[in-house]
Write a structure and sequence with these properties.
Length: about 160
């Protein structure tokens, strides 16, 4: 492995803020996941299909159904990534960041900027959950870059480690 790849500690250390934000996020995205499951199951029995004839449904059916499936996949991926974060797997944060940004972009396309508070909440969850720790310091001496191991005592202490002992 290249020395640059050992720059970050990819094994997540869950701080108290991260645990709280991830707990809220798993509830938030879990409820979104359940909502999309219920919508997918009951989409045939929507009010539009009851009041309008089959012609109106067939015009928008494929587009709406595609959006529902995409939202189902993204919310399911987010719940999976949050479970991976709680299991302290290295890929959980990366999946969470990518899926969150895709879901925010998807929601911007489908609903517009109007529910901006929801986007602010989702961005805030990403900013709290995703920070990673540095294993090494980058030092610039006389115009040259060098990597130096960061001693354990100089790293910021993890509040969750102190609480669990």
């Amino acid at each position: 492995m290249a020395p640059e790849s050992k720059l970050f500690d990819l094994k997540p250390q869950l701080t108290l803020a991260m645990k709280l934000a991830a707990t809220f996020a798993i509830t938030y995205y879990g409820m979104l996941f359940l909502y999309t499951v219920a919508t997918l199951v009951l989409c045939h029995y929507s009010i539009d299909s009851y009041y309008y004839g089959n012609e109106r449904i067939l015009e928008t059916w494929s587009k709406d159904f595609f959006f529902l499936i995409l939202e189902f996949l993204l919310s399911g991926l987010l719940v999976f990534s949050l479970i991976q974060i709680f299991r302290k797997k290295a890929n959980g944060k990366a999946i969470f960041v990518v899926a969150s940004l895709l879901l925010i972009a998807f929601q911007l396309v489908t609903t517009g900027i109007h529910p901006w508070v929801k986007y602010a909440l989702e961005v805030l969850m990403v900013l709290i959950i995703t920070p990673i720790r540095m294993k090494k310091r980058i030092i610039i001496k006389k115009g040259k870059l060098s990597l130096e191991e960061q001693p354990e005592n100089e790293r910021k202490p993890d509040p969750s480690d102190q609480a669990s002992s």
